[in-house]
Structure formats: structure tokens, C-alpha cells
Write a structure and sequence with these properties.
The structure is a single chain. The chain has 162 residues and is mainly α. Helix content is 70%, strand content 0%. Helix 1 packs parallel to helix 4. 9% of the residues are buried. The model has no long low-confidence stretch (mean pLDDT 85).
Length: 162
């Protein structure tokens, strides 16, 4: 299997760091949604894309590292890789610790993503519901012959009525 697990552990620690940055980013996006700060939301989304790209690059490096070590099954589980490594192999304990941190970080990241996506869906549904009356005319806009029918009544706010 892998001759030195320290290199793999170091690479996984970089992935965890990016995962933690993604969690902080989601927290900022959630706050931007709550504050209705679209500039901050767009900045957060752009920063997220950079992190996701970085995470993809790290994954490619990890796959290349495994390939160089002769691991052909790219879907091998880290737990299996650790269990198949000899007890005294450098980095085995570190890799076990990294595995635990990675599971925690990326499980929380997935939960946070679901939470932010749910918040966005709820806000979208509320906006649609609030805007629906504005999209539906209260009277017919066109008469039988295609000409403009009677005009819509002026808004009560124009006449200082609530």
C-alpha cells in the first residue's frame, strides 16, 4: 500500500482547512441572506467557488498521490487504507486522527449547505407569495375586441388611504 502515510495525512489536512473555510463562508452567506445584503451574498458565493475549485485541485493531487503509490481503486475508503497499513508505519496514527477530523468537518459542511439552501428556498417562496398579487391584475386588461378595458383602480396609497 502506501509507504508513508504522513504525506497523505498532510494533503488531507489541507482539504480539511479548505472545508473549514467553506463552513465559515456558508455562515457569512447565511448572515448576508438574513441581513438582505446582496453584495455580501454575491461576494460569499464567489469566494465559495474559489474554495470549491481549490478542493477539487487537492482531490486531484490526492488521487495522483494514491496512483503513484500503486493504489488503483480510487474509491478506496480511508478506514480500509489505514487498517491495511502496518502498525508501525509512519503517519498511521496521524492519518486516523485526520480521518476523524475530516468526517466531522465535511459532515457539518453538508449539514450547513442544506441549511443555507433551505433558507434560500424559504425566502424564495416568501418572495413569490408576496409578489403574486402584483402579477395578477384585479380587472381585465383587455376588452372583447382587444382594446384596453377600463383602467385599473389607482392604488389606495396614492389617495392617502391604507
Amino acid at each position: 500500500m502506501i509507504s508513508d502515510l504522513n504525506d497523505l495525512a498532510a494533503l488531507l489536512e489541507e482539504e480539511i482547512t479548505v472545508g473549514e473555510e467553506l463552513r465559515r463562508n456558508l455562515t457569512c452567506q447565511r448572515q448576508a441572506l438574513v441581513d438582505w445584503d446582496m453584495d455580501a451574498l454575491i461576494a460569499g458565493i464567489e469566494a465559495r467557488e474559489i474554495c470549491v475549485r481549490s478542493l477539487g485541485e487537492l482531490e486531484q493531487r490526492r488521487l495522483e498521490m494514491l496512483k503513484q503509490e500503486g493504489v488503483t481503486n480510487t474509491s478506496i475508503k480511508l478506514k480500509l487504507l489505514i487498517s491495511q497499513s502496518p502498525e508501525g508505519l509512519p503517519g498511521r496514527q496521524r492519518l486516523q486522527s485526520v480521518r476523524t477530523r475530516a468526517l466531522e468537518t465535511f459532515s457539518r459542511l453538508q449539514a450547513d449547505e442544506r441549511s443555507v439552501n433551505g433558507l434560500m428556498k424559504d425566502l424564495l417562496a416568501q418572495l413569490r407569495e408576496a409578489l403574486t398579487p402584483l402579477a395578477r391584475p384585479t380587472v381585465s386588461l383587455y376588452g372583447d375586441k382587444g382594446g384596453a378595458a377600463c383602467q385599473r383602480p389607482a392604488s389606495a396609497f396614492i389617495h392617502n388611504k391604507a
